């Protein structure tokens, strides 16, 4: 039996993508078991594998973990990506919650009805450039260090980079007014395990397209 974590989700980004990012950043190889139909999800549910009847689910260290934040917290703590003390962990948590709020907006864009896409896009650009990115730009300016917390690579850096790259997929020049975030993006992207994950052929998933939406909806609804 393989000792690699096993990820159960559909073959796309969704809420599993940040888990993929964090495992990759930690240099951990993982396997994936893709849900292809509603029956696949039902099998997991009826088999008692999903504590709250939903995915993502990750088999790791003898556990069948659910709830995205719980999974990410476990991986980060296990692989020394969660700060050196409680204060650093609190900062990391705050920064991560901010990036999560923004990434949720980005993630849900393809699922918006046609008549709401324009407004959703305007909202996500506004919040990215006026609420979230200025915070991280100021953090980097204030402490002048390479990483967000404790001058040490952490999950906050991983999740911010993921969100920055996702935002650029929607608007290529979205970082134009944030020079420190541009430098941060380049710096973190060149950390060896991150650089490897960004190469073609990795387990990083492409952006969700409108054509993917019906298949995803059939699995979950």
From TrEMBL:
Entry keyword Transferase: yes
SUPFAM superfamilies named in the record: GST C-terminal domain-like, Thioredoxin-like
Keywords linked to the UniProt accession: Transferase
Pfam families cross-referenced by the UniProt entry: GST_C_3 (PF14497), GST_N (PF02798)
GO molecular function: glutathione transferase activity
EC number in record: 2.5.1.18
Class in the EC hierarchy, top level: transferase
Domain GST N-terminal: 3-83
A single GO BP: xenobiotic metabolic process
GST C-terminal domain sequence ranges: 85-208
InterPro entries according to UniProt: Glutathione-S-Trfase_C-like, Glutathione-S-Trfase_C_sf, Glutathione_S-Trfase, Glutathione_S-Trfase_N, GST_alpha, GST_C, GST_superfamily, Thioredoxin-like_sf
Keyword Transferase: yes
Family from the record: Belongs to the GST superfamily. Alpha family.
Protein name, per record: glutathione transferase
Gene source species: Pterocles burchelli
